[in-house]
Amino acid sequence: MSALIIRRFIQMIFLLIGISFIVFISMHLAPGDPASIIGGPTATKADILGIRQRLGLDQPILVQYWNYLVGLLHGDFGVSFQTQRSVAAELFTRLPNTINLAIASVIVSVIIGIPAGIISALKQNSWLDVFSTTLSLGGISIPNFWLGAMLILVFAVHFQWLPVGGLDAPFWTLQGFKEMILPAITLGTGSAAMIARMGRSSMLEIIHSDFVRTARAKGVKERVVIWVHCLRNAMIPVITVIGLNFGFLLGGTIITEQVFAINGIGRLMIESIGSRDFPMVQGAVLLVAAIFVFVNLVVDIVYALIDPRINYD
C-alpha cells in the first residue's frame, strides 16, 4: 500500500505539470488581451504596453510558462491580474464553499442512489424497478441549470421554505444547512442516477453468481446473503463511480454556483475566464485537478480495504 501511495504521488506530480502546461498554453492562445481588459477603453497603446511589461506578458510564452512553473515549485501560484491579490489566498478563501457543496452533493447522491440501486435489483422487473429506472434516466437527462432554477422557483420563491442562494452561514448551523439543500440536490441528482444504475447492474450480477447460490444452498439467511455476501462485492464498482463523480462534481459546481450565487471556485473560474485572469484560472484548474487525483488515490485505497483480492503490485 505504501508503494502504491508513493507511486501515485509521483504520477500526480507529472500529471499536474502536464495539466498546467495545457491550461497555460490554452489561456494564452485564447482570444482577448488581459492588458487591454485591465487598461480599459481609455488606455493608450503605451499604457497597454506598460501593463504587458509589468505582468510579464511581453516575454516568449515558453519563458512565461517556465517562470510560472518555477513559482509553483516554490508554492507561489502567482498574483491575480484583476485584484492584485495572491491567487493562493483567493482560492483557499473560496475553496471551503466548493468542497462543502461537493461533499453535500456526494452525500445526497449516495443516500438516493445506493438504496435505489439495491431495491431495483432485489425487485427486478417490478413496478419499483421500473420507477427507479425511470427516475434514474430523468436524473441523468435533466440539466443542472434547469433543475436548479425549478427548485428555486418552487421551494424558494413559491413556498419560501428555503433560501434562494448563497452559502453565507456556516454549514453546521440551521441557516447554513438550509442554504445547502437546494444546491446539493441540484448537483447530486445526476450522480445519484449514475450510482443507482451502476448499483443495480452490479447487484444483479452478484446475486446470480455461483458463491451466492452456494450460500443459499447451505441455508444462510437471505438477509445475510444480501447484506454480507452480495452488497460488499457489489459496492466495488459503485465506489468507482462515487470517487469519479466527486471529481466531476467539483467541475459541476461551476454551473451550480452560478445559479445559486455561491462564491466558490467554480464561480471564480467563470469570472476569471471572462477577464482573462490567467494566473487565477490556472491556479483554480490545478487545485481542482489535484483534488480529483487525490480522491482517485483514496478510492484505490478503499478498494483494497473492501476486497483483499485486489493487488496493486
From TrEMBL:
Example of a GO MF term: nickel cation transmembrane transporter activity
This protein's record includes keyword Transmembrane: yes
Principal subcellular localisation of the protein: membrane
Residue ranges occupied by any ABC transmembrane type-1 domain in the UniProt entry: 95-303
GO terms for cellular component: plasma membrane
Gene3D superfamilies: MetI-like
Pfam families named among the record's database cross-references: BPD_transp_1, BPD_transp_1_N
Entry-linked SUPFAM superfamilies: MetI-like
Membrane-protein topology: Multi-pass membrane protein
InterPro entries membership: BPD_transp_1_N, MetI-like, MetI-like_sf, Opp2B
Keyword Ion transport included in the entry's annotation: yes
Subcellular location(s) per record: Cell membrane
Alphabetic keyword roster: Cell membrane, Ion transport, Membrane, Nickel, Nickel transport, Transmembrane, Transmembrane helix, Transport
Classification via PROSITE patterns: ABC_TM1
Transmembrane segments annotated in the record for this chain: 12-30, 101-122, 134-161, 181-199, 238-260, 280-306
Family to which the UniProt record says this protein belongs: Belongs to the binding-protein-dependent transport system permease family. OppBC subfamily.
Subunit: The complex is composed of two ATP-binding proteins (NikD and NikE), two transmembrane proteins (NikB and NikC) and a solute-binding protein (NikA).
Record-given protein name: Nickel import system permease protein NikB
Organism phylogeny: Bacteria, Bacillati, Bacillota, Bacilli, Bacillales
